[in-house]
Task: structure prediction
Amino acid sequence: MTVDSAFRQTYRKVLLAVMIAFVLIGGLIGAFGTRKARVEGIAERWATAVSDTTRKGMLSDARTRVKDHGDPLLVGVLVDPSVDHHHKGAFASLEVGKATRPSADVALVPLKVEYREPKEGTTARRVLTLDRTNGTWRVVAVADATADPSLSVPSDGGPAVTRAPITLYAGTLALGALISLGCASLIRAAGPEQSLGIA
Amino acid sequence: MTQTDELVLAPPGAGILTDFELPSAGEPLDRVDLARDDRYLKLLLLLLVSAAFFEGYDSSILALLLPNIQSTFHVSEAVLGITRIPIELGLFVAFFVARLSDRWGRRPTLLWSVVGYTVFTALTALSWDIWSFALFQFASRIFLGAEYAIGVTMIVEEFPVARRARALGTLLTFSALGTIVVGILLGAGLQDGPLEWRSFYLVGLAPLLVLSVFRRRLKETRRFEAVKAGRIHEEARPSMLEPWRTRSRRNILLVGLMHMLRSIPLFGSTAWWAFYAERERGFTAAQVAIFIICAYGLGCLGYYICGRAMERWGRRPTAMVYFTGGIAFSILLFQVSSKPVSFFALMLAVFFGLGMSPVMSAFATELFPTELRGQAAAWIRNVFEIAGYVFGPALVGILGDHATGAIGNVGDTVSLLMLLQLPTIWLVWKYVPETKGRELVDTVAAA
Result:
């Protein structure tokens, strides 16, 4: 085999490996991705939109987003209209917790927000009620938080919103072993060990 | 080890796209009078550290202000992740722009890179949606990457051998300082000002101001002028594909795969930690800032200790310990809810995860013959490692999207990706030869 043909073969193998890597990553995302929106994600987006209703230049857009994910009348429950927010987002931070499902089409999502005004650091804990209609979740009520620990956000000791199952960790380790074998095959196929640039 | 080899082994900032090909070795530097006076060298270093500083600064804005940027453009985590693909590809393009300095000269290419970086950074502050933001950041990264790479080349060409390593070290230190300054500005609440996160990008106008003052005092490198005038002979560089034609292809594949497997989880985690801390663990922006300043500052000791450890105990054991520590403490960081534990986990994740750059640089250079070292390092950093920049943050965003992601949270996504770094430990143990205590020699004759 000439040097050039060996080079061409290696080059093709590398190109093939890159393409396989792209397909695998795309496949991984496609296979494990979900088109259904999680109820906690919808609650988080709604709360973010509520916060944006006090931001300069964002009012119209924020109102649209609030309307998309819930009842616009609920904004007043979370944001006091009499407070001057200085054209900034109402919440300095927000966190949602794991939803509980009293029924198949109703979900309760804990929410913790930290207000920016009138005094930064003031926190509020609420529970959002979401209702599923025609497959779409929407925020329909906001209530004060209860003492129920299952309705707490993770930073208050509540459960994480989602948890990767242990089987996924095991599968990842198995994938790691496969990657190791693949790397070993590629390295061996690239040729014998060479002497180094050292003495 | 020779001075030249020390230069090649100087650890680049994590994943920084630098063309570490040294200037032609056709004519030894000592034979031509290329010395500059001290005053000019100090000025040059002052001008070049701004490039290094903004390299660290710019990358950190995106990582530390991700929740704010998401909030402004109201996009999902998946979209945030996907936009990182074109943004980070700018660093790949930068490599080719930096090479234009061989034709146009270092000075004009550097000056135009500063102008380009400043213009696009200012435009980033004016972005109207996530896609305009991505476009401006892509262009800004092209010029920033080129600016940094040309800065390294100018130091190599202008500084005398005895002072080169220290000058390069200063450059890298300023890159790390850029991250810490973003943390300080975050802690000071700059993001709460009228321009919000956009103010951080306007700080990027500073290099243009510095340049407008010192532009006339910046000179073309004497080596470049000498080569142009034919006073020294510039050897033709080997083709970029050359390492793949030779028996080096095994090592380039080995070291390249190690860099890629390390960089995907590493850059996935660094890009998303602040977001994770704020949205999934309830940190405030001020707490994120304090964590970054303290933990990052202390964690940077990892660079120094790694350099000492690889000389004392060898490259292989140092790499295996650092890989293990990086994986373990990163998983801990993205799993625990206790803030004190998070603090120490962040510090140790930085210490091991980012701190292993010196040993990775050693692998990327020592395992190749002299005549191919520059090309091999360029392939490893600019092709394999760039995969981490591009895919790491994108994968975390897509899989960890709170509403539609397959995993649904950033913490578990990063933890799972970290497990995929385990094969690197096995690759080091099984295939990487130990190079501790062995001198680099020119293997051209041997080849």
In short: The first helix of chain B runs from residue 3 to 9.
